[in-house]
Amino acid sequence: NHDYLDRFIQSQDSSVVNKFQQKYWKTKQTLIKVTGKKEDEHVVASDADLDAKLEVFHSIQRTCMELLKVIEQYQRRICFLSQEENELGRFLRSQGSQDKTRAGKIMQATGKALCFSSQQRLALRNPLCRLYQEVETFRYRAISDTWLTVNRMEQSRTEYRGALLWMKDISQELDPDTHKQMEKFRKVQAQVRTTKTSFDKLKNDVCQKVDLLGASRCNLLSHVLTTYQVDRSPHLFAYTPLTLNMVFSVGLPKAVLSGRKTNIKGTKENKTLHGGLSVTSQKVGDTVTHVN
């Protein structure tokens, strides 16, 4: 009974000392990492593929935050520009209604074109809001989940490298003929194997999650931006400039218009612009020949 009690106390003491030593070498490895001291080049090289994946993850994390900031700024500027554009359009329509000459009709048409442009610009906010919500959800769920796995992996890597430092320290003073030293070395060696198994599992998890994260982001942006690029943008960036170009062509002097008509072959085309301004044009492109 006394022998059993002595062995139990000795094993408990050994377990406490072992845990203390594990904490010591883990803390030492943490200090090496924080202070930026040079580590074993072979150990660092063995994690080259993992470090490359971590760079990709941090890039995704950073660019998603930047994208959210850009979308917020873009929405604010769209609202501001739309408001200014609408006010200018209303002003031109108001002034044009008081002018009974051709200039008044041009101002009214330009004003309605600007009001239409401001409405189309505001319509861009719907796909932008959806894009913001999708990216924010992606950041809170997918990126956060990967970030937690990366943190667990970093802790496991610190424990593993700390165990390697511990084993290296013991091996430098190892005497094969001493039973206690060999037993201690085997315990440390077992600790290295245990920490390596845990680290390798988390390392594999991180690499897989980063690959899935990159693919998910590509699919997300490809799907969400389709509405913005195809359904909304053409109305604003194609139709409105064409309308304004036609209005500006109407306002050109007759001498310029007659010069533009020289050697032009085509068919006559009637167009009614905003404000009831009728334009009869014989053109290649947008050349205007007569205003009613």
From TrEMBL:
Single Gene Ontology BP annotation: regulation of transport
GO CC annotations, alphabetized: Golgi apparatus
Give residue ranges for domain AH. Answer: 45-229
* Entry's Gene Ontology molecular function annotations: protein domain specific binding
One Pfam match: Arfaptin
* Entry-linked PANTHER family: ISLET CELL AUTOANTIGEN 1
What's the name of the protein?
Answer: Islet cell autoantigen 1
- Please give the organism: Amphiprion percula (Orange clownfish)
Please spell out the taxonomic lineage of the organism that makes this protein. Answer: Eukaryota, Metazoa, Chordata, Craniata, Vertebrata
